[in-house]
Amino acid sequence: MSTLPVVSTGEDVTRQVLADHPDLMVVAFRFGAVGAEGALHHHPHIQSTFVESGRFRFTVGDEQTEVAAGDSFVIPTEAVHGCVCLEPGTLIDCFTPRRDDFL
């Protein structure tokens, strides 16, 4: 269990770093309500996302897709992406290299 702090990233959304190393970081994003958003953004890191629970509509570039518990996918470096929560749940994101801005 991570002892790192839980940080609010928006209404009904929190993030907690679960593990980190200069080359890799694992982060839990918890969405507590339908309609909670992970705002559109981009970053130089490669990101993999695993849907631990819940259901989400993701936008990556010009494409939208719905994902649910058990789904996973990769977001390339600098791709504009974000999501809307359709059913409360948790996303487990891995970043390479780590997101120093999350520490």
UniProtKB/TrEMBL annotation:
The organism's place on the tree of life at top rank: Bacteria
UniProt cross-references to InterPro entries, sorted A to Z: Bacilysin_H2HPP_isomerase, Cupin_2, KdgF, RmlC-like_jellyroll, RmlC_Cupin_sf
Protein name: Pectin degradation protein KdgF
Annotated source species: Celeribacter marinus
Species lineage: Bacteria, Pseudomonadati, Pseudomonadota, Alphaproteobacteria, Rhodobacterales
